[in-house]
């Protein structure tokens, strides 16, 4: 039997609810970020959760943060588990172990820093329609899912509501300053390039990824989640073939089911059937074990 999905958390601290994560301010320069099992698709949170998804997001992020910390400073301090929960200034119930991260609180830079190594999603649509990506012209004749001649940095703003809009590099410079824009670009590309190499050895293509950064004093650090199926497109190397969309290790089963369910955007989203939930949960766990080489801890 699969465990029930965790949709809500209620610690004894002021809470900020994002679409997927609940964030608590520990009041000492640190945040506690709890990844729930909520799932969003097409910018709405669905009424059904995906069991263990939050653990995959938190544990996989922690795994990557530990690997890149020597090169790129990031917010990660610890993953809350039975062994260290007592060190926190708030009582954390055991069902939140393995899905809660203690991080340095940052002043978020309101930009989604996207690196793209392959032509997919909105970039593919833009290229197909205009021959450009993020306003930059690209050579002719590229196919859907094809590896790009070079990795692209395509930042977007973080819209309060609705879809995030692409930003030109000059707009990014105007928003954050020239030096910070350069740091965001270089760090985003470096993290993507490193992660792409690591994942490829383990049979996964990271087609693209979204990163967030924030300021702590003078320092610009990587925040939020990193290189998870919610923030990245993961494709199996096996079966990869440009010229068509790829099967991906994420909430694709949910998107496909939603598309075929007759649901229209703008109306309350429907409950997801059990078999779709189980298939999605399985994919999240599979990507975790493929990347880390270990099964998700029980
Ligand atoms: N170290 C940090 N300091 C400050 N804010 C952070 C930090 N790490 C992550 N965040 C923010 O915490 C929130 C995590 O929640 P979640 O990702 O579920 O939100 P969301 O619905 O995607 O909203 P958003 O559009 O703001 O990302 C995000 O707003 C993220 O930007
Ligand atoms: Mg987010």
Verbal overview:
The protein has helices at 53-68, 121-130, 169-176, 178-201, 252-261, 274-292, and strands at residues 15-17, 21-25, 30-35, 40-41, 44-45, 76-79, 100-104, 107-108, 111-118, 132-133, 136-137, 147-153, 156-157, 204-216, 219-223, 232-236. The protein is α+β, with helices and mostly antiparallel strands. It folds into two domains: 1-105, 2-Layer Sandwich (Phosphorylase Kinase, domain 1), CATH 3.30.200; 108-236, D-amino Acid Aminotransferase, Chain A, domain 1, CATH 3.30.470.20. The strands form four sheets. Strands 8, 9, 12, 13, 14, 15 and 16 form a seven-stranded antiparallel beta sheet that branches. Strands 1-2-3-7-6 form a five-stranded antiparallel beta sheet, covered by helices on one side. A two-stranded antiparallel ribbon has the order 4-5. Helix 1 packs parallel to helix 6 and helix 3 packs across helix 4. The protein is globular. Residues 18-21, 23, 31, 33, 75, 103-106, 108, 158, 212, 214, 223-224 line the site of adenosine-5'-triphosphate (ATP).
């Amino acid at each position: 039997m699969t465990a029930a999905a965790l949709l809500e958390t209620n610690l004894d601290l002021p809470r900020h609810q994002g679409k997927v994560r609940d964030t608590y301010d520990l009041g000492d320069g640190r945040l506690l970020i709890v990844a729930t099992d909520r799932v969003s698709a097409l910018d709405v949170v669905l009424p059904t959760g995906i069991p263990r998804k939050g653990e995959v997001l938190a544990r996989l992020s922690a795994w990557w943060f530990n690997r890149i910390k020597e090169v790129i400073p990031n917010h990660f301090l610890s993953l809350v588990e039975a062994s260290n929960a007592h060190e926190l200034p708030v009582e954390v119930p055991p069902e939140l172990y393995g899905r809660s991260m203690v991080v340095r609180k940052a002043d978020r830079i309101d930009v989604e820093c996207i690196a793209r190594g392959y032509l997919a999603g909105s970039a593919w649509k833009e290229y197909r329609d205009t021959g450009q990506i993020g306003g930059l012209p690209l050579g002719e004749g590229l196919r859907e899912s094809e590896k790009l001649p070079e990795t692209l940095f395509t930042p977007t703003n973080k819209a309060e509501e609705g879809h995030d809009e692409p930003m030109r590099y000059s707009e990014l410079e105007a928003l954050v300053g020239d030096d910070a824009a350069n740091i965001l670009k270089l760090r985003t590309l470096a993290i993507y390039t490193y992660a792409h190499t690591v994942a490829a050895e383990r049979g996964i293509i990271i087609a693209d990824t979204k990163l967030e950064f924030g300021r702590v004093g003078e320092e610009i650090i990587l925040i939020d989640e990193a290189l998870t199926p919610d923030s990245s497109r993961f494709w199996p190397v096996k079966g990869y073939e440009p010229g068509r969309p790829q099967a991906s290790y994420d909430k694709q089963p949910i998107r496909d089911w939603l598309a075929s369910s007759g649901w229209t955007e703008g109306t309350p989203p429907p409950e997801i059937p059990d078999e779709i939930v189980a298939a999605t949960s399985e994919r999240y766990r599979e990507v975790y074990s493929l990347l880390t080489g270990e099964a998700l801890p029980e």
